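Box 3.1 A note on notation
Throughout this textbook, protein chains are presented in two layers. The first layer is the amino acid sequence; the second is a token string describing backbone geometry. Keep the layers aligned when reading.
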Amino acid sequence: MQALFTVLNPLLFLIIFGLYPSMTIGPKEGWQVYSSAQDADGRCICTVVAPEQSLCSRDAKSRQLRQLLEKVQNMSQSIEVLNLRTQRDFQYVMKMESQMKSLRTKFRQIEDDRKAIMARNFKELQDKMDELQPLIPVLEQYKTDAKLILQFKEEIRNLSAVLTSIQEEIGAYDYEELYSRVISLDSRLRNCMNKLTCGKLMKITGPTTIKTSGTRFGAWMTDPLASSKNNRVWYMDSYTNSKIVREYKSMTDFVSGQESRTYYLPYKWAGTNHVVYNGSLYYNKEQSNIVVKYSFETGRVLAQRALEHAGFHNVYPYTWGGSSDIDLMADELGMWAVYATNQNAGNIVIAQLEPETLEVLRTWNTEYSKRNAGEAFMICGTLYITNSHMTGAKVYYSYNTKTSTYEYTDIPFHNQYYHMSMLDYNPRDRALYGWNNGHQVLFNVTLFHVIKTEDDS
């Protein structure tokens, strides 16, 4: 029995260490620790303690023990390899899980973006529909005039055929009669076109910000009588104590700041309500009721005239002040001056001016207080007044010089930068030029055209 215990003694230690890896047994003298392995938590998996080979190298059981130890070592190495692979696979799984979560987030974002884009597109379509709505009555009016236009076309074709036949057979038609028909048709066509040029203000859209420059107050403009190839822009910063006018060859140069010429006026201006008309600048001379006409071509004053009884130097300005007592403007019917007088109890007076001499051709006295007006502009002989130069702006009042009548209106417009110090209509562009708190902006206008034919009573 003792001999058997001697042989199995190493094996007994192996079994004990295998079953109880947490036990710590010190080797006897002359014994050695042959191998050990640990799991991922640092716990001992297997430890083999055996006597030195010199003690029992000749024993057959010792050879078996060494073989057993080699197998244990191989198993320990396999366990280590398996442990490394398991850790690597675990890291890969964690990485895949993170990527899956990222993909789910992106899918949710794509879905949210798609909904937002659809909502934005729907809003754009709705805005387009709102813009087209005022055109419906205009189109209805055009339909009633379709027969007249077809008649004009037919007469033109007939006259063209007559002219062609005259070249082949001179004397077949009376020349005076033919000439009279041509003149009559030309006159009727021009009258028809003139009727389309003017209309009643229905809507203001925008603004479009062209540029941000200058102080809080100022004016910028183009010439409504310039040719289609002439797109010069003039720029006058501030409302007082200045003589400098900057010129730009085009709107593109204006946006980029590429100035083409600088003019130094002989007198300082007051306010921001200047106008360029047929190559000349019209402005209010500082601290006076005098209107000055300055030629850009010659660099000289061509005319100047005082507006009788007109208040000046912040006696009757617009709501925002800024010496805006006298407002010069132009529309399809010519040049105008808007101001107030003591004789009209501080209410607005509209004066039509002769552009060459600045003579006042006719005046209209309104019942709207100049100090309660935010800004004003003329379209087709009708003065439109805004009730505020700040937030909640809208066209509140209009006065028709053709009928000498007024009405209260409700046409809103977006005062994007909260302080409007200049608002003027340009009939060539069919747009409102505005100076909005240091921003140069453009508003589009929608006009209702009333077409009258000779058959109308």
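The chain has seven helices and 22 strands. The helical segments are 2-19, 53-56, 60-132, 135-144, 146-168, 175-197, 251-256.
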